[in-house]
Amino acid sequence: MNGKRKKKLLRYGVMGAALATILAGCSGAEQKDPKYIEPATQVAESSQQTETEESWSYEAHETDATVDFPDTVVSTNGLLIDVDTGEVLAKRGGIHDRIVPASMTKILTVLVAAEHVEPEKLDDKVTIDIEATDYSYSNGCSNTGYEVGEQVTVRDLFYGTILPSGADSAYSLATYVAGSQEAFVDMMNEKLEEMGLAESSHFTNCVGIYDEEHYSTPYDIAMILKAASDNEFCREVLSAHVYTTTENENHKEGLTISNWFLRRIEDKDTHGEVLCAKTGYVVQSGSCAASLAQDKDGKEYICVTAGSTSSWRCIYDHVDIYAQFLPATEE
Description:
globular, alpha+beta, single chain, two-stranded antiparallel ribbon
């Protein structure tokens, strides 16, 4: 990592319930001047962060032993990191090459939101505004399935942002935290600066909609996933396979949402277990994903890929990469 970069890290305590992650993406242009969802529930002050700042000290690096991904991998860019040592075990393309992050963006969305929402606020109710649903539908995004006027919890917005990759949830969460998507995006870019990633990553929306000024790198996405996995609440969100939203008048039994990446990879032979994942897709990115896995000894790895040809092929790319580099379980 560039030595001039700032190094900060936020670690967080337990916030609550099982949550999770899934495939998705969307395309379109960023909507301007979003409205407030519910001013009474805004959490605008940075003083309401739940934990104390510490230095961001994690980084990863290539070594003489770094090799290319297996030939079976279709993705055009990516890397695999041994989390314990910080060594890049394998890669495809330059790990600092610019990529379109698509809905992998939402990893940073939930991380920044978690840093600004106190645990006791997770069950506060938020009213879904027409601005959120219009933004999602007009940009062709994946949705959680909330209806205009529906009362949902802040916790449900976290789940909805990751599991079905719901733009309605991400937009509503951003507006709850910052008052507008634009203000929240400023917070996202401030977080990138804190992590020393601002020279290579820049976001213009909280969803992952394509924009020429919305970009990242495989390395930076890996760092964002590492930070999110260090936040216990975000880790729970990113690791949930299935979640049912809170019952309300619109959905009397709640909405059951899934992280299909985790559900589809759980029975594949990766020589370990994939614990967390977030995928994405826009035309310009192809199918992409960031995941965190654990081997038989509890050692963790982070894999980021972009440029695969389908959501299933993206899953099998991660299967092939993990199976190649994680130690096999003894019979």
